[in-house]
Amino acid sequence: MGKKQSNQVKEITPMEVDFPQWYTDVISKTEMVDYSPVKGFMVIRPYGYAIWELIQKAYDKRFKETGHENMYFPLLIPESLLKKEAEHVEGFAPEVAWVTHGGDKELGERLAVRPTSETIICSMYSKWLNSYRQLPFLYNQWCNVVRWEKTTRPFLRTSEFLWQEGHTLHETAEEAQAETMQMLGIYREIAETCLAMPMVVGQKSEKEKFAGADATYTMEALMHDGQALQSGTSHNLGQHFTKAFDITYLDRNNEQSYPYHTSWGVSTRLIGGIIMVHGDDNGLVLPPMIAPIQVVVIPVAQHKEGVLDKAWEIGKILEKEYRVKVDDSDGYSPGWKFNQWEMKGVPIRLEIGPRDIENGQCVLARRDTGEKIQVSLEDVLKAVGDLLKEIQSNLYDKALKMREEKTSTAENTDEFKKNLKENPGFIKAMWCGERSCEDEIKEDTGASIRCIPFDDEQEVLYEGKCVCCGKPAKKMAYFARAY
Amino acid sequence: MGKKQSNQVKEITPMEVDFPQWYTDVISKTEMVDYSPVKGFMVIRPYGYAIWELIQKAYDKRFKETGHENMYFPLLIPESLLKKEAEHVEGFAPEVAWVTHGGDKELGERLAVRPTSETIICSMYSKWLNSYRQLPFLYNQWCNVVRWEKTTRPFLRTSEFLWQEGHTLHETAEEAQAETMQMLGIYREIAETCLAMPMVVGQKSEKEKFAGADATYTMEALMHDGQALQSGTSHNLGQHFTKAFDITYLDRNNEQSYPYHTSWGVSTRLIGGIIMVHGDDNGLVLPPMIAPIQVVVIPVAQHKEGVLDKAWEIGKILEKEYRVKVDDSDGYSPGWKFNQWEMKGVPIRLEIGPRDIENGQCVLARRDTGEKIQVSLEDVLKAVGDLLKEIQSNLYDKALKMREEKTSTAENTDEFKKNLKENPGFIKAMWCGERSCEDEIKEDTGASIRCIPFDDEQEVLYEGKCVCCGKPAKKMAYFARAY
Q1: Which of A5, A347, B87, B102 holds its CA 20 to 30 A away from the CA of A290?
Q2: What is the distance between the alpha carbons of residues A121 and A138, in angstroms, rounded to a whole number?
Q3: Which member of A71, A143, A162 has the closest CB to residue B43?
Q4: What is the pLDDT of residue A91?
Q5: Which one is predicted more confidently, B370 or A4?
């Protein structure tokens, strides 16, 4: 720790100066993540992993409440299986890491380190499914996947990441669509309530959809630098895979049918989103619901009699309901500790010194606003609880306001470019639906269609003329540069 | 499910007839696990995975209570890193799956799919550790590992399995030894209290220890067929890896020192142990603490008015404290359901029919003894709680009794062989400590030294003469054939 004192605190590059460097500073100085000896692979350190555990727990609970069960499928997938669904293999082949040798022997067939598990899961579903009475299949797995990426950034795009992938089968197309939408809804619900990240949701364009899907739905968040982050996707896979893998069952009419299929995933990428939505020039700002430490108790003048005892006493009271750390470490000033835990994004800092004890009170300092309030020691448990709730909701509101400020509309490509330059963020614009216009915008501006909102959030802008070609357009889409 | 009715229930090969076939029948008919398209790799199905989740939760809680934090390290390890510790690479090289291509490109250096993570973790520890003030490092990871195995059996030995691996660093040899023993103690505690599996603990011989360890400690359970299962190991790695990876820190005397190192792991193998310790000819028998379903409520004459309502009412009451399933499925007789859930090892079956309702009672049937008791509906929550505790402790007692019955002593190799033939199990025998005797016994009988018990469980048998060579022996060891 000695070494850290000199180089860790308050040496974060300001966002405005260099946003990518700010991000790199934050993730490394807070010890969330580190680079590994293998290029493009990250080590998730305890402070980062603890956030992932809390995210997992929140999602897993909702998956189970909606009837899904967890399983585990093999890491390695035979090349022949991966190739069974044509669009799918085309989409993933360039990113596959291949195992060619087991021990000293060359394998007869190459094995892909799973980039996603549709193919191996379908091969098992085809074995398990016989009758409509078994449907729906509602399964999920938490695992690691590997996608060989050229340029990587911890949490956001790495050659290995942790995620969950749900894989379901249904009797009807309608049920599969309902499942696809239900899971998108759960993704959004947890992202907004626990991660305090407001989401724009909608459908992906044909160009941007998952390799092998009928339709892909997405939730997209906006980062401080005005770039979007695809934060979770839910795919209606129709019968692409069930036909390719010959998954059939005896239906209610006693005939062999192919079931309808969905898959959906969120990953450790969400942690990158939390950092870039809530963070500031002092470091991380963590929403209380996923903060590994919700309250840090810092004794002031801790050598004075009774201070440490009182700090620990308060810690014990709070830890019955919250995740608490008492920082009684020696050799660091309270000021240094304040900075340290501010950088780590702990929602509440509780300060307690001799004068506070005399007055039967302590100070709560909010990470999100910097505000300090005095509370009576008798009320501390309730005060902390109330404040955590307030911080949680304030972070959501702040993020929503930020997104709204960075969301504009554009009538034509000139305006589109101007907006992207002057106020980068989401641009709402009409789109004719042609791939050529989508490609042209991407090439000219770097912005892609993030999603086409659902009907209840659709708007007709500028008399419905496509932002690119000016022809009649039926849908408004969210465009942005993206991670 | 239609298809399953005909082939699933009551077609388990009796243990006495063919124990390996019994095991295969149980794991497949209960849908815990399935074979995958890649030889040696298993699919863990929901009923098996739910057990793993409960085991994980129990261990993870204890790891955290003892100050350990979780992290995540990369799946792939460069060949050069794996080769840095000589004994280690020699031990693992024959079992490594190698990634040679990423996308279309051949890699400059082969990457090992982790068989265990000492090497990559040490490479990071060497970067992170500077000062004694940072010690101890107390970290763990939950992940998948791959070891290319020639002969495999689901849960017991598979080319991929799920496990946790703890990796700690300490200032002194004493602290590392204390950690090694603490973790062995936690392994045993959870195995005995939650999994109801009595363990023999002790040290591995030089021959059987982990590749690169100073000392390996193990817990070993005895299966119904008299074979031992190594169920968890804790290694004192000394300074082998910290020297090989040049992990140094400034110690209390302001000098550069190498820390002391431990690692420890338990895996999905434990599930195989649960099956083979507690199971019987009717299928699984699950200890309540790790049973995904602790109570199954089965309505009798469910078409009669009020029966289903009452079954659900009881289910709701019980599910506040226990894991409960109400099996109201149509088209199956209660008798068929009884068999089904008996096979799945559910600790308590609760039967409720019209006459029971009239009498304000229900029937609880124990999976472990077959005993049935009537309880008043008013007392059902407490009765179920008491009974689950009793079943948990009865299963442990039964398993201990079984092990004791299958544990013998042998004075010489003739007796050793006779015991193994007539009553296969643990054989306690004196051992001179020579590798030649250990090898000879292994070759002659297939039995290996499972562990050398600690001093408090040591005995002097047959005047301390080695079971093999007859020379003076200092230690008694547990021998057995093993999975």
Answers
A1: A5
A2: 12
A3: A71
A4: 87
A5: B370
d(CA A159, CA A41): 5
Distances (CA, A) of A482 to A14, A164, A221: 21, 22, 10
Q: For B148, which of A34, A73, A102 is closest by C-beta distance?
A: A102
Average pLDDT in the A318-332 region? 95
Task: Spell out which residues of chain B touch residue A130, defining contact as CB-CB under 8 Å.
Answer: 2-3
Chain B, 14 to 73: residues with Cβ < 8 Å from chain A are 34, 36-38, 41-46, 49-50, 52-53, 69-73
pLDDT band at B10 (very low <50, low <70, confident <90, very high): low
B window 99-128, beta carbon within 8 A of A: 99-104, 110-111, 113, 120, 123-124, 127-128
CA neighbours closer than 13 Å in the CB half-sphere of residue A55: 31
Model confidence pLDDT, tens digit, residues A249-302: 999 999 999 999 999 999 999 999 999 999 999 999 999 999 999 999 999 999
Cβ(B118)–Cβ(B166) below 8 Å:
no
Encoded tokens for A229: 């982050």
> What HEC string does B347-365 produce?
CEEEEECHHHHHCCEEEEE
d(CA A217, CA A207): 13
Chain B residues within an 8 Å CB radius of A139: 46
Could you tell me whether strands B249-250 and B295-299 are parallel, antiparallel, or unpaired per DSSP bridges?
unpaired
pLDDT tens-digit readout, A423-456 = 999 999 999 999 999 999 999 999 999 999 999 9
In Å, how far are A185, A235, A237, A240, A403 from A178, measured between CA atoms? 10, 11, 12, 18, 29
Interface check for B133 against chain A (CB to CB < 8 A): the answer is: yes
Domains, in order of start, for chain B: 11-278 (3.30.930.10), 293-390 (3.40.50.800), 407-480 (3.30.110.30)
Out of B1, B36, B111, name the one closest to residue A133 (CB).
Answer: B1
| Interface predicted TM-score (ipTM) | 0.95
A229 vs A274: CA distance, rounded Å: 10
Whether residue A224 contacts residue A279, with contact meaning beta carbons closer than 8 Å, is answered with yes
Mean pLDDT of A135-153: 96
pLDDT at res. B453: 98
A133 contacts on B by Cβ (under 8 Å): 1-2
Give pLDDT tens digits for B387-437. 999 999 999 999 999 999 999 999 999 999 999 999 999 999 999 999 999
Kindly tell me the sign of the dihedral angle through the C-alpha atoms of A66, A72, A76, A80: negative
Nearest to B465 by CA among B439, B432, B418, B416: B432
Quote the tokens at residue A107.
Answer: 């394998």
Task: Give dist(CA A412, CA A397) in Å, integer.
Answer: 31
